[in-house]
Amino acid sequence: MTATTAPEAALGVLPRSDGSAKYSHAGYTVTASVNGPIEAQRRDEHAYEAHVDVVVRPAAGVGGTRERHLESLLQSSLSQLILVKNFPRSLIQIVLQVEDSPENDYVNTKLVQASLNLAIMPALVQTAVLALLSAGVPMRATATATAIAIARQDGAQRIIVDPSPREIETGRSVHVLAFTSHGGLLLAESEGDFTVREWDEVYETARAICCRSAPAKDGMAMLLDDEATGGPDMRHFLRSTMESKVVADLHWK
Amino acid sequence: MATAERSVVLPGETIDPSLIPSDPKKALRLGPGLRHIPPTDIVPTVAGQLVTNPVKNSMWIEYNSNRYIPSQNDIVLAQVLRSATDFYLCSLSPHTAPATLPHLAFESATKKTRPILSPGQLVYARVALANRHMDPELECVSASTGKADGLGPITGPGCAFDVSLGFARRLLMARSREDGGVGVLEMLGGEEGGGLAFETAVGRNGKVWVGSESARTVVLVGRALQETDRRGLGIEGQRRLVKKLVKEMR
Fold first, then answer.
1. Number of domains chain A is built from
2. Where in the sequence is the domain holding A41, given as residue range(s)?
3. What are residue A52's phi and psi, to 5 degrees?
4. Residues B173, B137 contacting (CB under 8 angstroms)
5. Does some domain include residue A253?
6. A25: domain CATH number?
7. Which residue of A246, A247, A251 is the best one to mutate when testing the B interface, meaning the one whose CB has the most B CBs within 10 A?
8. Which is nearest to A4 in space by CA: A220, A227, A235, A165?
9. Taking every annotated instance into account, which residue ranges of this chain make up the domain K Homology (chain B) (predicted)?
C-alpha cells in the first residue's frame, strides 16, 4: 500500500465495550477497545491516580517482548493525556488489536523476530486516542502521531512520510513523533543513524503533519495541499471524525 | 432549553470567550465535561457539543457514553449485591466499586423496621455522595423531608434493560418528547401501541426497569427502548418501530 492513502476510522465498532475505534492508515489496521474507569486489581491500584493498562495484540500469534515495549511507550504517553487524577484507585484499560500490517515483499516476516516495529506506533496512538474519545474518558488534550524515515537516494537525503517496511529496511533511520493538540511533543522514538540536523528536519515535517492549524481550504484545494507538504493533516482528520460522531450522537437536538 | 448553536469541541481545545455566558449577578456554573483551570481557563475534557444556558448562567458539554461516573443527586437504578452490618452494597455499573446504601436510608426506617433486600434486587435510589476518593453512597429518602418521593426497592414482575447514558438522560427529561425527542413510551401506552399497561423506572446509570403483569409487554417495551437508542431513531422512526413490534407480538 502506498503512503498517500488517506486515513480512515470508524468509532463504536464494538457494542459491548465502553468505547472502541477502528483505524487504518498506511497499510496498518488497528481496532481498539477502551473500558474504564473500572475497578483496578489490588496490585495495579494507585491511591491518587488511575492506572492506564495498555495491551497490544499482534495480528498473528501471541505478543512478546516487542509488544511489551510498545505497550510501555503507549502507557506513558497516554497517561499524560488522560486525566488520571480524576479517578484514583481505578483502571482504564485499552486493548489494541492489530488486524493488518503491510507486508515486506523482500523478506518472510514470520522469520524476522528481533527488531522493534516502530512504524506501527502512529497507528496505535491514533487508534487509542480515538477509542478514548469514543469512550468519553476525560482527557487533558488529544494527540496525533506520524512515522518518518530518512533514506539516502542518489547521494541525496530524502524524507519519507509513513514509510513502507521496505523503505524502513533500506533507509538509514526511522522516527516516530506524537504531538498533543496544544502542539507539545508527546512521544519521540528514533532508530538508526542520524544527525541532530536530520532530526530537526524530521521534527519540522512531523509537526507540519500533526499540528497543522485550522484548515481553511477544503475539497480539492486540501488534496493539493496534502501533496505539497507530503502527508495527511492528522489533526483535521481527528476533528472531522469526532465531529461526525458527536452529530450522530446528538441527532435529537 | 438552551441556545441552539452547534459547536463541537475536543478535549483541550480553547473555548471561544464569546460563547461563555457572562451574567453579572450569578456565578458561572460548569456542568459535565468541563474543567476550570485557575485563574481563567475553562477547558473541555470530552468530545461533544458545547451547550450554554444564559438564563441560568451555566454551560456544559453534551455527549453520549456508556460508562457511568456517579455524581451527586443523580437518580440511579442499583442492584443489591449483598448486605453488610449496617448498609447494603449495590452495583451501579459492571466492574466498578460497589456503592453503599445505608439500612436506615429508607422512608420511615428504624433499626427494627427496615426493608430487607435480597441480593439481586433492584433499588431506585439517589446518589447522596459522590467523591472520587470514596465509594459512592446512595439513599432512598429525601434528607430534608424524610419522604421517599418515589424512590425505594423495586417490586413486582419486570426486567431491567441497558441503554446508553445519553438516552437515559433524554428519558429522564421533564419534557422528554419535546426536549429529548423520545416519544416511544407514550406511543407504546397510547394508540400506536394499543394501550399497553406497563411502568418504568429510568436510572441515570443507563438502566431502565420495565414492569408489567404480562412478560410479553416487558420484552416489547424493553426492545423498543433499546432499538430506539441503538439505531438513533427520530419521532417518526419510533412510531414505525412501535407499530412493527406490536404487530410482531400479536
1. 1
2. 8-243
3. -100, 120
4. no
5. no
6. 3.30.230.70
7. A246
8. A227
9. 158-215
